Amino acid sequence: MKKEITVTINGEKHTATVEPRTLLVHLIREHLRLTGTHIGCDTSNCGACTILVNGKSIKSCTMLAIQADGKEIITVEGLATTEGLHPIQEGFKENHGLHCGYCTPGMMMRAVELLADNPNPTEEEIRWGISGNLCRCTGYNNIVKAIQYAGAKMRGETLPSTEPEFV
Amino acid sequence: MIQCKTSKEIGGMGHSIKRKEDARFIQGKGHYVDDIQLPGMLHMDIVRSPYAYAKIKSINAEAALKIPGVIAVVTGKDLEKYNLHWMPTLMSDTQMVLPTDTVMYQAQEVAAVIATDRYAARDGKEAVMVEYEPMKPVIDPHKSLDPNAPVLRTDKPGKTDNHIWHWEVGDKEATEKVFAGADVVVKEQMHIPRIHVASIETCGCVADYDKVNNHLTMYMTTQAPHAIRTVIALVAGHVGLTEEKVRVISPDIGGGFGGKVPVYPGYVIAIAVSFLVGKPVKWVEDRSENLQADSFARDYHITAEMAGTKDGKILATRFKVLADHGYTDASANPSKFPTGLFSIGTGSYDYGTAFMEADAVYTNKPPGGVAYRCSFRVTEAVHAIERMTDRFAFEVGKDPAQLRMENFIKKDQFPWKSPTGWEYDSGDYHAGLQKAMDAIDYDGLRKEQAEKRKRGELMGIGISTFTEIVGAGPSKDFDILGIKMFDSAEIRVHPTGKAIARFGTKSQGQGHETTYAQIIAEELGIPAEHIQIEEGDTDTAPYGLGTYASRSTPTAGAAAAVAARKLRDKARKIAAYLLEVSEEDLEWEPGKFSVKGAPEKSKTIQEIVFAAYTNHPQGMEAGFEATHYYDPPNLTFPSGAYICVVDLDKETGEIKVRRFVAIDDCGHIINPMIVQGQVHGGLTQGLAPAMYESLIYDEDGNILNGTFMDYLVPTAVESPSWETGHTVTPSPHHPIGAKGVGESPTVGAPPAIVNAIVDALSHLGVTHIDIPVTPFKVWKILKEKGVA
Ligand code: FES
Ligand code: FES
User: Fold this and answer.
1) Among residues A92, A144, A138, which one has the least CA distance to residue B680?
2) Are A93 and A144 within one domain?
3) What is the CATH number of the domain that holds A92?
4) Per-residue pLDDT tens for B710-749?
5) pLDDT of B353
6) Does ligand 1 have an atom closer than 6 angstroms to the CB of A107?
7) What are phi and psi of B276, to 5 degrees?
8) 3-state secondary structure of B709
9) Which of B323, B360, B445, B751 qualifies as a cystine partner to B386, CB 3.0-4.6 A?
10) How far is the CA of A38 from the centre of ligand 1 (A)?
11) Protein fold of B33-135+203-284
12) Which of A46, A78, A110 represents a domain boundary (last residue)?
């Protein structure tokens, strides 16, 4: 019953033998030991497992590993390069866009696609754009700021202030 | 403006330095329980009851055991052989680990399947056949005390009803007198419904028992690792797991909010199985299991009354509570406080008479009574007092802001003795409310509302000016299972002047690795970036009661400051020796001691620490370390003034939170960025129960919304853009004047939101709506009143 599949994850080719029912998120976390992709629910609501498959953000608990055969996958571990952090990572750190960090990888992967589709989103577009990802800690204000910051950085514009407006 | 005493390089209190812990989280290198994979590790899944109340007639594991990979099915009868089938709760009640004959709530653990991988364990779970004989459950707490209700806790010898305890505080007679003679009495029934913390990481563990060394390492999602180790030793000491043989490690935690304080059966079963088979056992619950079986919060039915004069002076309050605890009292309260700190419910107002009472009952629902980002039932109390204050203002025809201003305890009345026995440390409620009113243009909003009302549009403004009570707690009153609620810090400074500090608390996202470093940086002048913070490993960290109820800053944060001050005293001695002057001739500024009047003669803290290892005065103990166990002299009383503006859609009942201004006073602020972040997050967790969340059961005890598809955690779309600010009223008894903040917004936000919605409908005669206030509830009201 097991099937051999090949996926490219963060630029590296991996071959794995999996049951047809194996979820992609389990392939990533347990077979390939990339544990930055998290699991937060069993109904595809939380988005903690979000990754990029051929450039599209996908909830990896909603896809079978065999469906990813031959595909290009990017996980949170593939965001930073030898040059340094990805702008979205920098955005989250500089703007306090995370507390416990559990939703963060999924949230960032979703934001990467959001910014690829819409490089200069409004606050409203950002809020709707991440509405498939739940965060229980931050109240979202600073996640919105983090994505705005990353957008500015990717567009090569002056970066918005990261000082808290807590006066 | 927040004043900083240290330079940016040192990064002490008041600096918004970026979080030290973020580097790993943003790069996928956080280390959570489910990330742990040990050689030979087994996986556990749990068979759960479909019924709320049933006899177990048989459990047949035959088919399950035939599934490749399944190695065992554990039942209550198996645990009974080791006397591990029951465990104590934190409130000294008892709870089944696995049942031997009866299940008491839907989703209760019935058996555990152990397998070589996750999928096999799940297959096994599906294959275990359990035969039940369902019984009529008790679901409605109001009916739980009916004389003909079945007695649920037949395991308790002599128990003849479902009553758990009665509690009361205040002066009953005096309160009755004031009520009897008052011009105005208002009364509302309110239900603060059952909700769930729903941290995005669920609960889980890896129990790793090493047979050769008779040693258990327990990796688990716990907010209180030390207390858990003690509990494990108390429960399993008789099978050889004594406290020195147990190491509890709480790795990174994906949100706690109180839900990771209790001991769940899954943990105990995993330990038992690992102990028996000598292999590591992982158990991580699904989201649905988490929502359906793990501790709930709230579920208080409150009859709230307020008495006052017709010109708007509050004279007395009276609250009567029916507390639905589910099948057992598994609240996470300090032992002497069965209702937690509910008695803070006299609020921010200056009056001297109150009476509160509560009765707790058993029902066939999951046990719990944890915080949901709240200091032991403070949210329930604040909801009652803040709703009743508005209700009273409406009755006497006064603006709710003005009525609050007239009734507030004044800042020179602190320390203030509340009628229920607390001594509020400090506060400036007038300043907070004024700041919030200015920020939101309160008068402008009231004008706008009046105009809109004329046009038939529905707009409401709601206020909540709450007093919080956190930082549990002084050892004379506060303990959990007998262990006093101090907390601890241990600081070790290495010869090169860099430090490591360890704590008895455990961050679940609050940013301790940054803020604790800032407290030490403030006191010692060592840059925060050179201070590494560790928590969560009972083998290395000093004993403490953990992180919940906004207690970390008030207790462990204080311990850090006191331990650092001990080191500063030692530094002074060493500096005097090095500079050949007497200690009194030295002056401290962050990072160095210099000679009074000769500032060029000085020693930096780094030079001093180096000397502690290389050239310390003869007769002085070498090294540079200090530990402190801080026993707070009082609780701390943060406060806040929140104002919410809502617009209601007349046709659909849809509620739009247009603006929300939150002014918090948590005393001295350690890191404004982090405090603001905590406020944002807490506000969304206040919005959640106010408008979206509640766990709903039908009359047979079936949960109707036990998954993330129908338990509505707010997304970025529901959550408004929060506007935040602060006032600073330091705590006079806390070493750094801080008070704690994590839960304030969750406590304070719901009444502000509900008050706004009720305000939008008050001209129609609406005086109260129970939370969650949904569009459907609003629409029904509008329909009834002929508006929709
Ligand atoms: S784990 Fe929740 S959406 Fe995938
Ligand atoms: S940071 Fe904790 S869930 Fe988002």
Assistant:
1) A138
2) yes
3) 1.10.150.120
4) 999 999 999 999 999 999 999 999 999 999 999 999 999 9
5) 98
6) no
7) -80, -40
8) coil
9) B751
10) 8
11) Aldehyde Oxidoreductase; domain 3 (3.90.1170)
12) A78
Ligand 1 atom at minimum distance from A62 CA:
4
Query: Taking Cα atoms as reference points, which of B487, B575, B488, B486 lies closest to residue B525?
Result: B575
Any idea where the domains of chain B sit in the sequence?
A: 22-30+487-630, 33-135+203-284, 296-472+634-784
DSSP code at position B647: E
- If chain B, 788 residues long, is cut into consecutive pieces of 10 residues, what is the mean pLDDT of each piece? 92 97 98 98 98 98 98 97 92 96 98 97 98 98 97 96 98 98 98 98 98 97 95 88 96 96 96 96 98 97 98 98 97 92 97 98 95 92 98 98 98 98 98 98 98 98 97 92 93 98 95 97 98 97 91 93 98 98 97 96 98 96 97 97 98 98 97 97 98 98 98 98 98 96 96 98 98 98 94
Residue A160 forms part of a structural domain: no
Nearest Cα residue to B626 out of B552, B557, B570: B570
Q: Count the neighbouring beta carbons within 10 Å of the beta carbon of residue B553.
A: 33
Q: Distance between CA B313 and CA B86 in Å, rounded?
A: 52
pLDDT over 90 percentage in chain A: 98
Q: Where are the beta strands (DSSP E) in A48-145?
A: 50-53, 56-59, 72-74
Contact B253, B368 (CB under 8 A): no
DSSP string covering B52-112: SSEEEEEEE-HHHHHSTTEEEEEEHHHHHTTT-SEEE-TTS-EEESS-SSEE-STT-EEEE
Domain that holds residue A127: 87-155
CB contact under 8 A, A76 and B28: yes
Q: Could you tell me which of B590, B527, B459, B523 has the C-alpha nearest to residue B737?
A: B523
- How open is the CA angle B158-B162-B166, to the nearest 5 degrees? 100
Q: What is the pLDDT of residue B239?
A: 86
* Cα–Cα distance, B336 to B483 (Å, whole number): 12
Which ligand 1 atom is nearest residue A49's CA? 4
Q: Is B743 a catalytic residue?
A: yes
* Cβ distance of A99 and B253 shorter than 8 Å: no
For the Cβ of A137 lying below 6 angstroms from any atom of ligand 2, the answer is yes
Q: How many CA atoms lie within 13 A of B574 on its CB side?
A: 26
Instruction: Look up B153 and say whether it is catalytic.
Output: no
Could you tell me the distance, in angstroms and rounded to a whole number, from the CA of residue B118 to the centre of ligand 1?
17
Closest C-alpha among B392, B226, B219, B231 to residue B305: B392
Residue B704 neighbours by CB distance under 10 Å: 10
Beta bridge partners of B283: B205
